[in-house]
Structure to design on (182 residues):
């Protein structure tokens, strides 16, 4: 019986270890407490995205350059990528009138810390970031947040960028039809 308990423990230990290896820990976007987000737009903070039209030569992915600034920079500031571009609560469908609704309608599809490619951001409040976007069949906008991931405060919103042909076929897909020969 003791040998059976040892084997069971060993199997449990191996499965637990494999689960951690397979899951690679937490998904990075799950660290953002978007339900706690507040809006604290600042007059002198900005995010500018260029180019505004992506995929002019038929590309499905393209790089976007972001120029941003904050009058109160912090090492916890980050840039979030949102698609569709209008991510304010005014576009959210009402779910339950008795529950306090979040101020932002959706979570970012990607994010990067503001000081990632601009190490002097904390001192100067100015930074640049280059992000690759994939055609999501919708437009994009970018938000500059302070307060870190656990207490995000939206301080600036960028202009919108979009792919020239958002409905272009991106990748081949297989689908089963109703008939055998479809």
């Amino acid at each position: 019986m003791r040998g059976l308990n040892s084997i069971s423990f060993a199997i449990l230990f191996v499965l637990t270890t494999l689960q951690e290896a397979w899951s690679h820990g937490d998904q990075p976007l799950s660290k953002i407490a978007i339900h706690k987000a507040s809006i604290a737009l600042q007059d002198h903070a900005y995010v500018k995205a260029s180019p505004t039209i992506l995929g002019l030569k038929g590309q499905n992915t393209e790089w976007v350059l972001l120029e941003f600034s904050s009058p109160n920079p912090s090492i916890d500031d980050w840039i979030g990528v949102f698609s569709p571009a209008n991510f304010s609560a005014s576009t959210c469908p009402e779910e339950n009138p008795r529950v306090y609704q979040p101020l932002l309608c959706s979570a970012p599809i990607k994010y990067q810390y503001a000081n990632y490619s601009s190490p002097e951001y904390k001192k100067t409040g100015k930074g640049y970031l280059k992000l690759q976007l994939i055609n999501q069949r919708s437009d994009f906008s970018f938000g500059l947040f302070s307060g870190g991931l656990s207490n995000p405060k939206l301080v600036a919103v960028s202009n919108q960028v979009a792919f020239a042909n958002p409905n272009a076929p991106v990748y081949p897909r297989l689908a089963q039809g109703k008939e055998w020969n479809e």
Q: What stands out?
A: The chain is about 15% helix and 25% strand. The mean pLDDT is 83.
